[in-house]
Write a structure and sequence with these properties.
It is a single chain. The chain is an alpha+beta fold. The protein contains twelve helices and 16 strands. The strands form four sheets. Strands 3, 4, 6, 7, 8, 10 and 12 form a seven-stranded mixed β-sheet that branches. It has a four-stranded antiparallel β-sheet with strand order 9-5-11-13, with no helix packed on it. Strand 7 and strand 8 form a beta hairpin. Helix 5 runs antiparallel to helix 7. It is elongated, with a radius of gyration of 51 Å.
C-alpha cells in the first residue's frame, strides 16, 4: 500500500473550498476571527489493490442464469380479416451460466389462426404445435446467447384487439416475461365480417342439388312501320230497310144460327190406337237384353297381401354407473357450465350400437371425453381453454356409411334413440354438413345423437328420464342458438367457460333422473 494517497476525510466529504470561502466572507463581514481547519485524525487511503482480495482475485462473483423473453409482431396495427401477421419470440440468457431445459409457451387468441408450416427456429423449420399448447422445449440457452422462434398467424373476423402472451421457464432459473403484445384492428366495417344467414352457404361450401335457373329469353325488338297522324274515322253500319209484314186476317165471327145448329165439341179428343201386330208363323219374338249394372263388380284377390313393416334404426348406449357418478361430481362442483354441458352430452351420446360405430359417432364422442380434462385444468388455472372439438375428431364421422343391423342384446338400463328412414337421412345430412366453427358443429352432432328414452327400467322411471332428456335437449338447443349469436358478434367469447344457469339446472335434473334409474 505504498502507492496509496493520504486524504483528509473531513475535508473531502464535509467542507469543500466553496464552503470555506463563504464562511470566511461571512466572518469578515461580521468582524469575527478566522477559524482554524481541524486536521483529520484518520487519513483514508485509496489504491488499486483495494478492489482485489489478498491473493489478487476479484471480489465480484459470477451471476447465475437469467432468462429474458421478448415478443414482436409485424404488422401490429390496422389489421383486417385475413391479414397475415409474423410473430417473432426471442429467449435470451442475461446471466453468466447456461440455462438448461428451457420451455417456451405462447398463448394465441381464438381470433387468430396459426398458419401450418410457418414455424421456424433460427431459420430452421420445426413442428411448433406444442409452442401454442403445453409449451415447446427449446433445450439449453447459452450464457449471453439468444434463441429466436418465428411463426405466422392469420387474423379472423372480429371487432376486439388481439393479445399475444409469451412465457418462458427453466428449472431453478428466474425468468422475465415479455409484456403482452397487443394487435389492433382497423376501425370501421372492414374489421368485422357480418354473419351469414342460415339459408346461405358458407365460404367454400357447394350444393350440387341446386339447379341453375335458365335465363329468360330477351324480348324481340318492336319496329314501327306506319305512322298515322289523323284519327281513323269510325265505320258507319247502314240499318236494313223496314219490311212491311201484313197483319193476319181475322176469322169471321159465327152467327147465332150457326152456333145453335153445330154439334157440341168433346172435352177431350179421342185418340186412335195403332193396330196390334199379327204374329208371324215360324218366328219367335225377340227378348229384351238385361240392363248393365251402374257400377261394375270388383274382383277381390283371394288372400289380402300382408303390409311390409317399416325398418327402424336404433342408436343405443348402456347407462354406466361410473359415468353417472362422474357427472354428479361435475355438476356439484365449480365446473364451468359449457364444459359441464359437453361432459354430459358426450357421456350419454347414443353411440355404442352398430349404427353409431358405423357412422363414426362413437369415436367422435370418445375424443370429446378425452379432451375435456385438459380443458378443465386450463379453466381452473385461468388460462385459455384448448380446443375440445378438433378437426381430427370431426374427421372420424362417416355420414354415408351403411346402416348395420343390431340385435341390441344388452344388460341393464339402455339409452336409446329410434329413427325411421327419413330421420336417418336427416342425421346423415347433419353429419355431412361443414361449418367454419368446429365447436358449433360438434355440439350439433352431440345433440343429434342424444338419447330420447331409457329401456330396461320400470315405466314410471322411464317416463321421468324421458321427460328430463327432452327438457335438456330443449335447453341445449337454446344454448346453442345463443352461442352462435355471441360468437358471430364477439370472437373472444368462450362458450366453455361462460355461465348459463338455465342449461346447468336442466343438466342437474337429468343427472338426478339417471341416478334414480340406477338405484
Amino acid at each position: 500500500m505504498s502507492g496509496a494517497r493520504e486524504i483528509d476525510v473531513d475535508e473531502l466529504f464535509e467542507r469543500n473550498a466553496d464552503t470555506r470561502l463563504l464562511d470566511r466572507r461571512r466572518r469578515d463581514e461580521l468582524g469575527l476571527p478566522p477559524v482554524a481547519t481541524p486536521a483529520s485524525a484518520a487519513p483514508a487511503r485509496f489504491g488499486p489493490e483495494s478492489m482485489l482480495g489478498g491473493d489478487g482475485v476479484p471480489l465480484a462473483t459470477p451471476r447465475g442464469a437469467m432468462l429474458r423473453v421478448s415478443l414482436q409482431a409485424r404488422p401490429d396495427r390496422e389489421l383486417i380479416p385475413g391479414a397475415v401477421v409474423t410473430v417473432v419470440a426471442e429467449v435470451a440468457d442475461d446471466g453468466d451460466a447456461d440455462a438448461d431445459d428451457v420451455r417456451l409457451r405462447i398463448a394465441v387468441p381464438p381470433e387468430a389462426e396459426p398458419i401450418a408450416g410457418s414455424f421456424a427456429r433460427d431459420g430452421v423449420a420445426i413442428d411448433g404445435e406444442a409452442l401454442l399448447g403445453e409449451g415447446l422445449r427449446i433445450g439449453t440457452v447459452p450464457a449471453a446467447g439468444t434463441i429466436r422462434l418465428r411463426f405466422a398467424v392469420r387474423v379472423l373476423p372480429g371487432a376486439e384487439p388481439l393479445g399475444l402472451v409469451a412465457h418462458g421457464e427453466a428449472p431453478g432459473v428466474p425468468a422475465i416475461a415479455a409484456p403482452a403484445l397487443r394487435l389492433t384492428r382497423r376501425s370501421g366495417h372492414a374489421a368485422y365480417d357480418a354473419p351469414r344467414p342460415f339459408f346461405e352457404l358458407e365460404t367454400g361450401e357447394t350444393d350440387d342439388d341446386l339447379a341453375t335457373v335458365a335465363a329468360a329469353p330477351p324480348e324481340p325488338d318492336r319496329a314501327v312501320d306506319t305512322l298515322i297522324d289523323e284519327p281513323a274515322a269510325p265505320t258507319v253500319i247502314d240499318e236494313p230497310a223496314a219490311t212491311m209484314v201484313p197483319a193476319p186476317a181475322e176469322p169471321p165471327e159465327p152467327s147465332a144460327r150457326d152456333a145453335e145448329s153445330a154439334p157440341p165439341e168433346p172435352a177431350f179428343p179421342e185418340l186412335e190406337l195403332p193396330p196390334e201386330p199379327q204374329p208371324v208363323p215360324g218366328l219367335e219374338p225377340a227378348q229384351d237384353p238385361e240392363p248393365e249394372p251402374a257400377f261394375p263388380e270388383l274382383e277381390l284377390p283371394s288372400e289380402a297381401a300382408a303390409p311390409v313393416p317399416a325398418r327402424t334404426f336404433v342408436l343405443a348406449r348402456v347407462l354406466d354407473a361410473d359415468e353417472v357418478r362422474a357427472l354428479e361430481r361435475v355438476f356439484s362442483g365449480a365446473v364451468p357450465h359449457g364444459l359441464a354441458a359437453l361432459a354430459l352430452l358426450s357421456s350419454v351420446a347414443a353411440a355404442d350400437a352398430a349404427l353409431g360405430r358405423a357412422l363414426g359417432v362413437a369415436e367422435f364422442a370418445r375424443s370429446i371425453s378425452a379432451a375435456l380434462p385438459r380443458a378443465l385444468v386450463a379453466a381452473r388455472m385461468n388460462r385459455p381453454s384448448p380446443p375440445v372439438v378438433t378437426a381430427d375428431a370431426l374427421g372420424a364421422l362417416r355420414p354415408h356409411a351403411d346402416a348395420l343391423d343390431d340385435d341390441l342384446a344388452y344388460d341393464g338400463p339402455l339409452l336409446v334413440t329410434r329413427m325411421d328412414a327419413r330421420e336417418l337421412d336427416a342425421l346423415r345430412a347433419l353429419l355431412a354438413r361443414a361449418l367454419d366453427d368446429p365447436f358449433l358443429r360438434g355440439v350439433q352432432v352431440l345433440l343429434a345423437v342424444a338419447p330420447r328414452g331409457l329401456d330396461g327400467v320400470p315405466e314410471d322411471i322411464a317416463l321421468r328420464v324421458r321427460d328430463a332428456l327432452a327438457a335438456y335437449r330443449g335447453a341445449a338447443g337454446s344454448w346453442l342458438m345463443r352461442v352462435t349469436v355471441r360468437r358471430a358478434v364477439a370472437r373472444g367469447y368462450d362458450p366453455l367457460t361462460a355461465a348459463d344457469p338455465a342449461l346447468h339446472e336442466a343438466g342437474r335434473a337429468l343427472v338426478a333422473a339417471l341416478r334414480e334409474a340406477l338405484s
